[in-house]
Amino acid sequence: MARFNSLEEWLEWQEKVHSREIDLGLEKSAAVFKALNSNAIKPPTIIVAGTNGKGSCIAFLESIYRAQGYRVGAYTSPHILKYNERIRIDGESVSNDKICQAFERIDAIRNDVSLSYFEFGTLAALDIFWRSNLDIQLLEIGLGGRLDAVNIIDADTVLITSVSIDHVDWLGETREAIGYEKAGVFRPGIPAVIGDLDPPKSILKSAIEKKSSLRIINKNFGFKRNEIGWDWFCNTDKHRKYLSLPEPALKGNHQYQNASTALMAIVEMEKHLLVNEAAVHQGLQDVQIQGRFQLIDGDIPVLLDVAHNPHAVRLLFDYLSQMYSDRKIHAVFSMMKDKDIKGVIGIINPAIYHWYISPLKTPRAVNQSDMQDCFEQCSISNVTLGYKSFSESYLAAEENAVVGDLIVVFGSFLLVSEYLLFGAQRQIILEG
Questions:
Q1: What is the pTM of this model?
Q2: CA nearest to 331, candidates 384, 265, 386
Q3: Of 263, 286, 309, the domain-final residue
Q4: 322, pLDDT greater than 90
Q5: Cβ neighbours of residue 186 closer than 8 Å, sequence gap 6 or more
Q6: pLDDT band per the 50, 70, 90 thresholds, residue 122
């Protein structure tokens, strides 16, 4: 008999049943997975690790492989609107029923092994994927790499997007320490594609120790923009070129870097799955992902971005400076309390006309008092706090903006989610 009847009940229980929200380590997940699927045949697999750009790289890979006609499974986290977004097959989120059935199977064989919320989700994705006759599975590391539950799987190609300071309580306070954790996904003889422009020495050292086949951007592969598009090349033993590629559907200069890294992984996977140039062109144009420089057009347009660490916010600042330097920018903002809040606001404040601080419905979010201290320590006074809900903070920004201004919602996945939910509810009211 199933423990619960709905996905909501399963998730609420998982959030409470384990003593720690984040519990790094492979032993428990590996033991349960072996019991769950002892004879499972793994589909060709790409694992994507990194600090920023993981979701975008998986979106590029998913779009290109689907354009070629392959059946693709993609596991990502966190979600923005619905938990189901984390587990996709052929671009569609799997159903509540499929996830609940996977949870039931996991619960039935785990015995006394206590699993975290993320471990349950990872095992469910892997269980669903191997039952779904996939041509390829794309797995995003949730935190770090070496001890992340996804790392129980041996990838056929691994990809590291970027390495910057984040999650210091679990991964360390330096890029070298964090790089070591990311490199934990390497395997002997397996291609390792590095999209970081200045990879930490710890990554290079780990690749040598594990005898991984390194492919580094601007060394073994790269891209060059031109007036009509961009070109991609690799100078590995495969010597591949793609000329006059279309601009990626995802916006921002950094997306050329992410797309280039994804293309190198696709070339490395050719012994498993062939991809033609037409699929590359189509996939670059079809790729979609929420919350990455996502523009909601209107008299006062809204730009959504999940940037929540200094590296990602620097990219957002550069994009705003390039595309919206002539506009007054109103920021609806919040962050989690374990993030580098002062680092983030210090980077982007020169682009912001006024800040509106939104509360978030999670104990992990920074409280209003601590947020005020951060702004005061950065000597920033163009800020309003004290709102009781996201809608209140957003409507204040909207009321103070005029036609031609821009509202930017950023700082957390949850904040982008709040905007999309608010927008959907508002549309229902308008249509009613």
A1: 0.94
A2: 384
A3: 286
A4: yes
A5: 158, 192, 206, 207, 210, 212
A6: very high
Question: Cα–Cα distance between 41 and 50 in angstroms, integer?
Answer: 27
Mean pLDDT lowest among 16-20, 124-128, 172-176, 207-211? 16-20
Residues 253 and 327 in one domain: no
Provide the CATH number for the domain around residue 368.
3.90.190.20
Measured between alpha carbons, how far is 218 from 222 in angstroms, rounded to an integer?
A: 5
In angstroms, the CA 75 to CA 93 distance is 10
Amino acid found at 116 = S
Rounded Cα distance between 257 and 252, Å, is: 10
Map residue 298 onto helix, strand or coil: coil
Q: How does pLDDT run across 360-404, given as a tens digit for each residue?
A: 988 889 999 999 999 999 999 999 999 999 999 999 999 999 999
What does DSSP assign to residue 361?
S
Q: CB within 8 A of 289, min separation 6: which ones?
A: 55, 56, 59, 250
Reading the block at residue 268, the tokens are 């490395």
What b/e string do you get for 173-201 counting C-beta neighbours within 10 Å, with b at 16 or more?
eebeebbbbbbbbbbeebbbbbbbeebbe
- Token representation of residue 26: 């492979």
Whether the pLDDT of residue 267 is over 80: the answer is yes
Tally of domains within the chain: 2
| Same domain, yes or no: 221 and 305 | no
- What residue numbers bound the domain in which 201 lies? 7-286
C-alpha to C-alpha distance for 375 and 387, rounded to whole angstroms:
16
15 shares a domain with 127: yes
Cβ neighbours of 87 (radius 10 Å): 28
Residue 402 φ/ψ, nearest 5 degrees: -125, 165
Q: How many CB atoms lie within 10 A of CB 159?
A: 31
Lookup: tokens for 175:
């890029």
| 266 vs 259: CA distance, rounded Å | 10
Domain boundary among 237, 266, 286: 286
Contact yes or no for 380/275 (Cβ under 8 A): no
What CA–CA distance (Å, rounded) separates 167 from 174? 11
